[in-house]
C-alpha cells in the first residue's frame, strides 16, 4: 500500500483542477530515494544455554562479528542506523559491529527475534516446531517484514543504508517475501554466521538481491552455520 495512488484520497479531487491536481498530488507521494538493506545474521553462539541470556557468543563468534564489522566499515557507506533483534546473540553481535561504525545509532526490537515464520514446503524431518509456534512467530516476523522492508518514504531525499542484525529464519523469510518468492521455501536457503545479505529497494518498489549470506570476507576456518 505504498503506491502513490494508495496514498491519496481520490474523493477529495477537485472537479475544477481535475487531472492536473491529481498528477501533482501523485508526484508529491512518489518515493525518490533508494533504500539499501543489509541483513546480518548473528555470530556463532553457545547452543547449550538454557535461557536466552545464556546463549552468548563463543570466542569464534566474537571473531566473526569483528570480521563482519570490518567488512561493513570497509564499504565506505554512510550507514543510517543499526536495528537489531533483542535476543542476546544478536545484541552482542551488534555491539561488536558497532565499534567499527562509530556514531551509527542502534535500535533494539522484539519483532526481529528468532522464530518459526511459516511451515516449510517441502517439510523437513530434522526441524518440527509445534504448530502454534508458526501462528505466534509467523505473525510477528511478517509484521517485521511489513514494518522494515518497503520503499523509501516520499519525504526521504537521499539514499539510505540500514543494517539489521537478526537471525537466519527471519532473514530467509524476509528475502523470500521481498523477492515475491513463495515464503514456504525459506528453509531451502542457508546462511552462515555473521553473513551479509544485501537487498536494494528502488523508489518504484522493485527489489533486487545483491548478495545472499556473503562470508567471503572471512577466512575459511572462521566460517560456521550453527
CATH superfamily assignment of the largest domain? Phosphoglycerate mutase-like
- Give the SSE order as H and E letters: HEHEHEHEHEE
Helix content class? 25-40%
Give the overall form: globular
Low-confidence stretches: none
The number of strands is: 6
Arithmetic mean of pLDDT: 92
Radius of gyration: 20 Å
Distance between the termini: 37 Å
The first-level CATH class name of the largest domain: Alpha Beta
* CATH architecture call of the largest domain: 3-Layer(aba) Sandwich
Q: What proportion strand?
A: 15-25%
What would you note in describing this structure?
The protein is α/β, with parallel strands linked by helices. The protein folds into two domains: 1-30, no CATH class; 33-222, Phosphoglycerate mutase-like (Rossmann fold, 3-Layer(aba) Sandwich), CATH 3.40.50. It has helices at residues 19-29, 59-74, 88-98, 131-148, 168-178; strands at 35-41, 81-85, 105-109, 160-166, 196-201, 207-214. Strands 3-2-4-1-5-6 form a six-stranded mixed beta sheet, with helices on both faces. Strand 5 (196-201) and strand 6 (207-214) form a beta hairpin. It is globular. The two termini are 37 Å apart. The model has no long low-confidence stretch (mean pLDDT 92). Pfam families: His_Phos_1. Its main location: mitochondrion. One of its GO terms (biological process) is positive regulation of mitochondrial fission. It is found in: Mitochondrion outer membrane. Keywords: Hydrolase, Membrane, Mitochondrion, Mitochondrion outer membrane, Necrosis.
